[in-house]
Structure formats: structure tokens, C-alpha cells
Design goal:
The chain has one domain. The relative contact order is 0.14. The chain is globular. The chain has about 260 residues and is mainly alpha-helical.
């Protein structure tokens, strides 16, 4: 019995890797029952991205690499690890919200595989702002690494607790197959661990980062999801991307304030 539970948990983690990343998982058969705990491991992908970013920053510093190379590669890391699944959701959501159409039409736009003008414009803007933030983050890389865990933990909380805008699609499928109570409890643990790590590095910055994540979450809940009658996988992807950008900008500002001796 215990072995069966352990295998289901392990398969849940592998299912998360298969769904939300490009981390290779071979030789494993995942069935519907294994998806019950998959959302619990979404932040693990964030840990992997954060560790890569931390190591990359250390490696570039040791090599004496130019700032442009460092920023370019670190900006690309999250997209390379995830395959751009969350950025795809961000772009689709941006197109839908910018259309100012009815709820039904916005949901149709989310399904459209073609990228509209607003998706391209805001996608480029996201990368420019993210790269700009990264160019200022040096001392607080540890806090920056935690943002990938926080964004995914908050997104997972919405997936299992929010009303689904439609009954088909990845988001609704994850909600139906996931354990709401277990996932919510595990996400709280991930968030507390992240806060603990950040507070150990810089308490003022940790408070600012959490405030940023929560603020974006409220915008996501009451402004974005409200327009669609609930959440979808694309909207959750929008939250991941926007919260990571805002948190990165907050950390960049914190670095500048530290240089001025303000914090």
C-alpha cells in the first residue's frame, strides 16, 4: 500500500514535468489517476529554473562574461525549461483581453493558435522589461530564484480553487484530476518555504516581493478571470508570467535602493 502511494506521488511529479516543462521523462506510463498530485509538484519546476538561474549567474560572474550575454541567457532559461507554455498563455490572454469582445468571443480567442498583434507587442515588451530587471539583479539572485516557485504555487492555488471558465481545456482537466485540499496545503508549504529563504536573505525585499505577487494575484482574480467567467490554463499562464516580471522589477528596484543605502 505504501509503495503504491509512493509510486503515485512519484508519477505525479513526473506528470508535472511532462505537462509543464521540457524536462525529458521517458519510459514512464502516466494514467489519469497519477494526475491527482501533479499540481503539487508544479513549484518543483520553479525550483529547477531558480537553481539554473543561480548557477548561471555564478558561472557568468566567475567567467567575467559581459552583462548582455548574462542577461540574454538568463532571460531565455525559463522559456527553454518550460517550452514557453506559460508565455503562450500570456500571449493568448493578452490578445483576448485587448480585443474588448464579449466573454464568449474572448474564450474563442484563447483557443486560436495564431498570434495577434497585441500578443507580439506585449510579448516583446515582457522580454525587454524582464531583461532590464535582470541587468540590475546581482546581490539578490537568491530571492530572484524564489520567484519561480512563488508564481507557480500561486497559479496552482488558482487552478484547484477558482471556477473554471469552461469544462474543456488543460486548466479544467487539471482541476478535475487534482486533489483540491492536498494541493492547496502543499502550495502553502511551498510559499512558506520560499518566504523563509527570501527573508533570510533580505526581509524588506522578501516583503516587497510577496506583496507584488499578491497584488498581481488580485488583478488576475478580479480583473482577468472575471472577464472570462473563471480561470483557464492560459489565464494561469498569464499570472505566472506577469507575477514573475513584476517580482523581478521589484527586486531590481530593491537592488538599486541597496546601492543607495536606503535598505
Amino acid at each position: 500500500m505504501e509503495r503504491a502511494v509512493r509510486m503515485r506521488i512519484i508519477k505525479g511529479m513526473l506528470a508535472a514535468f511532462m505537462t509543464f516543462s521540457r524536462i525529458p521523462v521517458v519510459g514512464v506510463r502516466i494514467d489519469k489517476g497519477d494526475m491527482k498530485y501533479s499540481m503539487c509538484f508544479l513549484p518543483v519546476i520553479g525550483i529547477i529554473i531558480g537553481l539554473i538561474q543561480w548557477w548561471a549567474d555564478a558561472a557568468f560572474t566567475w567567467l567575467g562574461a559581459g552583462e548582455l550575454m548574462r542577461v540574454a541567457l538568463m532571460t531565455a532559461v525559463p522559456v527553454l525549461v518550460t517550452g514557453g507554455i506559460h508565455m503562450d498563455g500570456f500571449c493568448d490572454t493578452t490578445d483576448a483581453v485587448s480585443s474588448y469582445q464579449t466573454k464568449e468571443r474572448k474564450l474563442e480567442i484563447l483557443k486560436d493558435s495564431n498570434a495577434g498583434a497585441f500578443a507580439v507587442i506585449y510579448g516583446v515588451l515582457w522580454f525587454v522589461l524582464y531583461a532590464g530587471a535582470l541587468s540590475e539583479i546581482h546581490t539578490l539572485v537568491g530571492i530572484f530564484a524564489c520567484t519561480y516557485v512563488i508564481s507557480r504555487a500561486m497559479a496552482a492555488m488558482s487552478v484547484v480553487n477558482f471556477r473554471a471558465a469552461r469544462q474543456d481545456g488543460m486548466g479544467a482537466g487539471e482541476q478535475k484530476s487534482s486533489s483540491k485540499n492536498v494541493t492547496s496545503a502543499v502550495m502553502i508549504i511551498w510559499l512558506l518555504l520560499s518566504v523563509g529563504v527570501m527573508a533570510n536573505i533580505s526581509l524588506p525585499c522578501a516583503v516587497a516581493v510577496i506583496a507584488a505577487a499578491v497584488t498581481v494575484f488580485f488583478v488576475y482574480s478580479f480583473c482577468i478571470c472575471e472577464q472570462f467567467g473563471g480561470f483557464t490554463g492560459d489565464l494561469a499562464g498569464w499570472y505566472v508570467q506577469v507575477s514573475e516580471l513584476v517580482m523581478a522589477l521589484v527586486i531590481a528596484v530593491a537592488e538599486l535602493l541597496m546601492k543607495k543605502g536606503c535598505i
